[in-house]
Amino acid sequence: MTRRGWFLFGTMCVLWGIPYLLIKVAVEDLSPPVIVLARTGIGALVLLPIAAAKGYLLPVLRRWPWLLAFTALEIAGPWLLLTDAERFLTSSLTGLLIAAVPMVAAVCSLLLGDEDRLDRTRVLGLVVGMGGVAVLLGLDLGGQLRAAAELALVVIGYGTAPMIITRKLSDLPSLGVIAAALGLTAIGYAPVAAFSWPTTMPAGRVIASLLVLAIACTVFAFLVFFELIAEVGTNRATVFTFVNPGVALILGVVLLDERVTAGLVLGFPLVLLGCFLATRTSAPQALPAIAEP
After folding, report:
1. Distance between CA atoms of 192 and 213, rounded to whole angstroms?
2. Distance CA 263, CA 135 (A)
3. Among the four residues 97, 253, 268, 269, which has the most C-beta atoms within 10 Å?
4. How buried is residue 58: exposed, middle or buried, by Cβ count under 10 Å (0-12/13-18/19+)?
5. Highest mean pLDDT of the ranges 199-213, 247-261, 274-288
6. Is pTM beyond 0.70 here?
7. Is residue 21 part of a domain?
8. Cα–Cα distance for residue pair 18/13, rounded to 1 Å
């Protein structure tokens, strides 16, 4: 991986490691649809005028079926489900369960013929990783089956959406894709959010959380994510989810006083090991070194 690839990778580890904390703060005062609308609406207001001025929107809209599919799998569906799940789960546990995304990406790549064969190492990785998820669910979930089902759908969406970018939208300007996706999501959620709009002004920290979610963790993060996919490929691009949960865990424990449970201690290492084995190539390779582009 090049120096640029490592920089993009590290940036994504942080940018998509902190939303779990921010969502946990925002959901105290706001409903999930309102949070999704605020996050996507602010992002769309920032990016749509720029994308339109550059002429990026029309080429993206011509491929509306794939744009809608990406929007549904990466933004519209997962962000609502993830936000709703955090009403019942800690931010750290939510972040750790999302670490299963690379396993889904690996399976999809294998089924689509994008990767080498499913050997014993990868099968072992899938088994170990799912075992880690089972430990997290069994020890920490506390009977929250609805939240578990929501996060399972989020993992599937996050694991498959990047492949739409790679296969169907890779030649389009990333700014146009993300601007259109955010705009479509905001339009779709506007009437839904109206039914649960807050009657009083949210607390200052809630407003601050929404702004950081929209600007840093949405607008900037997606642009970096698309650059990372172009630089290192879909499978490697999703591997930053190995690190995101660590960021979410640290922030949840330090800032929200969330407990470090037995499930986190036992399950998280298994998930990481499973993801590493499931996403490695069949032929053993040396760890990537930082090199000049």
Report:
1. 20
2. 6
3. 97
4. exposed
5. 199-213
6. yes
7. yes
8. 9
**CA 211 vs CA 13, 43, 204, 208: distances in Å:** 19, 9, 11, 5
Domain carrying residue 274: 3-279
Percent of the chain with pLDDT over 70: 82
Q: Is residue 30 part of a domain?
A: yes
Instruction: Please tell me the distance from the alpha carbon of residue 213 to that of residue 74, in angstroms, as a whole number.
Output: 15
* Number of domains the chain is built from: 1
CB of 263 closer than 8 Å to CB of 140:
yes
* From 191-205, 246-260, 275-289, the region with the lowest mean pLDDT: 275-289
Q: How far apart are CA 142 and CA 88, in angstroms?
A: 10
More confident residue, 103 or 188: 188
Alpha helix segments (H runs only) across the chain:
3-15, 19-26, 32-53, 57-61, 64-71, 77-85, 91-97, 101-111, 120-140, 145-164, 174-194, 204-214, 221-232, 234-238, 244-256, 262-279
Q: Which tens digits make up the pLDDT trace of 26-67?
A: 998 999 999 999 999 999 999 999 999 999 999 999 999 999
Query: Is there a domain that residue 289 lies in?
Result: no
286 lies in some domain: no
**Cα separation of 3 and 82, whole Å?**
32
Beta bridge mates, 291: 2
233 phi-psi bin (left φ>0, alpha ψ -120 to 50, beta other): left
Q: Please state, in angstroms and rounded to a whole number, the distance separating the CA atoms of residues 45 and 70.
A: 20
